[in-house]
Structure formats: structure tokens, C-alpha cells
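Here is one chain, start to finish.
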Amino acid sequence: MRLTRPRLALTGAVAVLALAGCGSGGGGNDGDGRSGAPVTATGSLEHLAAEAKCEPDMQTDADTIRQAICKTGKEKYILATFATDRGQREWIDTAKDYGGLYLVGRKWVAVGHENVLEDLRGRLGGDVEEGIDHSGGGHGGGAHASGPAGEKTSGHTGHGG
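Its structure:
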């Protein structure tokens, strides 16, 4: 299997999700009726990080994707920018298979806990999208067999479902 840069970057995002947990544990955020979110920010990863008040720790700096880890207090999240809308959508569609929450703007995504993304949404705008929730039934709380690049993922231990 050929590894592409977006898939390698996705591996990093999946690792953060594994550290942070598998999903929100609650309902979706999109229909909360909140109208106070700002106009969705655009720009480079550095510009978005400055808007989010984050000192980005660069993890991937490629032509198609730039990805950094940011911290808000004790919480970590991923901030990624994409060269194309299509590349962003393909990354999100693949990442959603691993659960979690995604704050999505034009050619950028933030991945983290619900409370962190709500704070970021207040600064950056965007829409919250939710990945597939694997916490109930199906896999019994064990690890996924492998991630998109074939490596083992630590997954969902600790969920009560």
C-alpha cells in the first residue's frame, strides 16, 4: 500500500484522538442554534493558530497538508490546513471513521474534545462535524485492528459501551 502525506497526517490526528478519547460522549453540536460564532476564519496555519491563541507545534509541513498540535490549558488539539478543498474533504471523510469531533472551516480542520472545539469555534467560526461513534455495542471496547496506513491504533479502551 502506498502511503500518502494526507494519510500520514491522518495517522497523527488519529493518535491525538486516541489520547483524547473516541468521541464527544454526547449529542451533536451542529443544531445548537448558536448564532454567536464569528465569520469562519481563513488563512495559513500560522494565521489560524494566532487567531486561536495557539503556539503551533508543527508535525507535518507538506505541499498538500500542514498540521500542528496546539494546547489550550491541559487540552491538546490538532490544527490542519489543506492546499485544496478536495484534499480537506478526503481527509475528513477518512478521519471520521475514527470518531471524534471536527471543527471545519475553508481548507482547515481542528480536531479535539467538544469543549475545546466550542472555544475554538468562538474564535475561528466553522462548523462542527461528528465522526462515527464506536463507543456503543459493536466492538466491545477493544482496539481497532489497524489505521488507514496499516498501523495498529489504540482506539477505544475505557469506554463503557
